[in-house]
Each structure stands twice: as C-alpha cells, then as structure tokens.
Amino acid sequence: MLVIEDLQVELANKIILKHIDLEIKQGETHALFGPNGSGKTSLLMAIMGYPQYKVLSGKIMFKGEDITYMPINERAQLGIGMSYQRPPTINGLKTRQMIHLCGKGKVDEEKLAGRINFSNFLDRDINAGFSGGEIKRSELLQLMAQDPDLMLFDEPESGVDMENMALVGKTIAAMLQRNGFHEEGKSILQTKHERKKMGLIITHTGYIFDYVTADKGQVLFDGMLSSVENPREILRCIGQTGYEECVRCMTEND
Ligand SMILES: Nc1ncnc2c1ncn2[C@@H]1O[C@H](COP(=O)(O)OP(=O)(O)OP(=O)(O)O)[C@@H](O)[C@H]1O
Ligand SMILES: [Mg+2]
C-alpha cells in the first residue's frame, strides 16, 4: 500500500504541497480533485520521484519501504507507474519500441494496442503530432504494458472523444481490476479483498466514474488534502459551491 505522511514539497523555490497525508490500501482506487494549479500533478510527480519536486519534510512509504528519496527508476521497478497529463514528444523513439521497453519485452504490442484502438500509431514516434486524445491513449498503452501495482493517472479522460471515452474508461477499469472481467472476458468479479492494484486518478469532470468506481475522493486545496467517502458527491458539491466552500464544509464535518 501507499502511505504518505505530512509531506511538504517545494518546486522552483515555492512550497506547492504543504501538509499531505494520504493512504491508499491494496485494491483501492482514489480520485483526486482540486482547482487548476493546486498541485495535483505535482503530488503525482513527487510520488513518482521527479527530483525537481523537492521533499522538504515528511515521508512516502510504498509496500512497506521508505521511498521518499528513492530514485525514480527504482520506484518504477518497485511497481509505481504514471500516465502523464502532458508527456513530451520523443523524436526517434517509435511507440512500438516504447511499449516493448515498458513491457520488458514480454507484451504483444499489437494485441495490447488493439485493445485501445491504437494499432495505427505503433510505428509513429512517441507523441509526435498526436492529438490530445491520442496522447491520452498512448499514455494508457504504455502504462498497460508496464502494469505497475500503483497506477497514477493524470487526467486520463481530458480531451478524449465520446466513443473513445468508453474504451479508455473500460481499459482503466480492467487495469485496476475493477471491471469484473479479465482479458479473455471470463468473469472473475474480483472483490476488494482480492484486488492487488492501487490507483490514484486526477479528474476534473468525473466522466471516468461511469466506468471506474473510486473508493475515496481527495480534494487538494491550499497544499492540503481533504478526504471524502463519495467522490461523485464531492464533485456535485464543488460544482455548486466551489472548492474552498466545499473543503471548509468537509473539514467541519470531520
Ligand atoms: N517550473 C515551475 N516554476 C514555477 N512554478 C511552477 C513550475 N512548474 C509548476 N509550477 C506551478 O506549480 C503549481 C502547481 O502545478 P500543478 O501542475 O501541480 O497543478 P495542477 O493541480 O495539476 O493543475 P491543473 O488542474 O491545471 O493540471 C502551479 O501554480 C504551477 O504554475
Ligand atoms: Mg495537472
């Protein structure tokens, strides 16, 4: 499981995350909300281990290990992976090669790409000229090949069209073992107890909840997280009263 205790993170000489406490148990998926610029992406980058996100205090534990200062490649090997909000273009690296690397040579690139309608992109350079929605599917494909135990999704549905939304949503549900079916379509109806995968999904719209249920919602505001049981409800509240009022109400009811 992932446990974050009193984490404070600085980026470009500015404290972005002030006091973060978060616990994602095995088999759980959490939704992460917050206004633009509140630090959602920064939190994911800090969990993944990007050195520009400097930890000033607190700690991050994963699978019982203190990973606070662990290099990013070791975190990936330990089972943390991320689908990025705005990944870079990598000229000269074909999507097919990247999938091969992510899957450590053990995945069938064609088969995997076919699952998210992405076969025609395998021989293009990573993200080179990809549309917004195509980038999201490319990110998903890489994460699917990596198949980590903790999956960090940074706005996986933003810019994805209606038809592909269902595909993206169902794919994420399958990746997080939440759809009741495994690859061959055989029902396995995994219970919370049997699930191994953990997820943290940033979303502004909540469209993803039509396909993926979240166990908890987290709202990032003013560098701190407030946690709620029902992510859909909190979205409604944010829509009606705004983030600040909503967080005030949540903390008062604690
Ligand atoms: N290199 C940088 N120098 C200065 N400020 C930065 C830098 N990178 C990020 N920031 C700032 O850090 C803050 C947090 O950014 P972050 O991307 O984590 O926000 P976010 O919650 O993911 O927002 P969004 O919903 O728009 O994706 C923002 O105000 C951003 O401008
Ligand atoms: Mg962001």
Description:
The chain has helices spanning 40-48, 72-78, 95-102, 109-115, 132-146, 162-175, 231-241, 243-252; strands spanning 2-11, 14-24, 29-33, 54-62, 65-66, 80-83, 90-94, 125-126, 150-154, 198-202, 216-221, 224-228. It is α/β, with parallel strands linked by helices and 254 residues long. It contains eight helices and twelve strands. It has a single domain, classed as Rossmann fold. The chain starts with a strand and ends with a helix. The relative contact order is 0.17. The mean pLDDT is 92. It is 32% helix and 27% strand.
What would you call the structural class?
A: alpha/beta
Strand proportion, as a percent range, falls in: 25-35%
State the CATH architecture: 3-Layer(aba) Sandwich
| Small-molecule components bound | adenosine-5'-triphosphate, magnesium ion
Number of helices: 8
